[in-house]
Amino acid sequence: MRIAINLASRPYQDERRFYRNWGSALAAMILLTAFMIFISVRHHTNSQRQWAQAREAEGKLTELKKEETQARQILAQPENRGTRDRSYFLNTAIVRKSFSWTGLMEDMERVMPAGLRVVSIAPGIDRNHFVLKLQVEGQRRETAVELLRNMEKSPHFRSPKLSVETHAESKNGEAGVKSNIFTAYVPAEPLEGGGN
Fold it and tell me: Which helix (H) or strand (E) holds 121?
């Protein structure tokens, strides 16, 4: 039988393995720290650039608002009121003339869920944009909510809002839910040579 006896004054330690393991861990930590510093510096640079762009856009917006205020002041002068009123009337007439009931019905058909019907549509104009007041009726509230979701996905309806809901009975005794919906409407560009 062979017995291994260590006669050294200090016990044997495998220092090479110790330094190799800890050196690898230290190198990994240094690389990770360098990567995190790189990401932080890059993020800081990007955010500085975005803040600069935001300040520039804000400055341009302020200039445009000043120009708009000056233009409104010029139009508000007594000698220019006739021009302003005529311009407003003509712009409103042009917008009204561009409204297409056929286009609206086609757009409504694309977003209307099953089990819901339109009771009334009242188009209007707000700052040269179309706004719609819709009254819809269905047996369940969920169908009106589904209509809102479909409108939000459509490029023709903006910011639809459910304003009033009433529970009512129809003539045949079935319960239903009437909902009023307000939305901005952006009609599709008319095709050349096409009409209403």
Answer: strand 116-126
- Break the chain into its structural domains and give their ranges: 18-76, 100-185
pLDDT value at residue 169 = 65
* Cross-strand partners of 125: 130
Q: Are 158 and 186 in contact (CB under 8 A)?
A: yes
pTM summary value = 0.49
Token pair 């009931």 is found at 101
pLDDT in tens, 54-108: 999 999 999 999 998 998 888 788 888 788 788 878 877 777 777 778 888 888 8
For residues 108 and 157, the answer to whether their CB atoms sit within 8 Å is no
Round to whole Å and give the CA distance between 146 and 149: 5
Single out the residue of 111, 114, 178 nearest to residue 143, CA to CA. 114
Residue 145: HSE in the Cβ half-sphere, 13 Å Cα cutoff: 4
Of 179, 169, 177, which Cα lies nearest the Cα of 138?
177
Q: Tell me what the mean pLDDT of segment 141-150 comes to.
A: 88
Residue at token pair 């200039």: 63
- Cβ(145)–Cβ(118) under 8 Å? no
Superfamily of domain 100-185: Ribosomal protein S6/Translation elongation factor EF1B (3.30.70.60)
In this prediction, residue 78 carries a pLDDT of 85
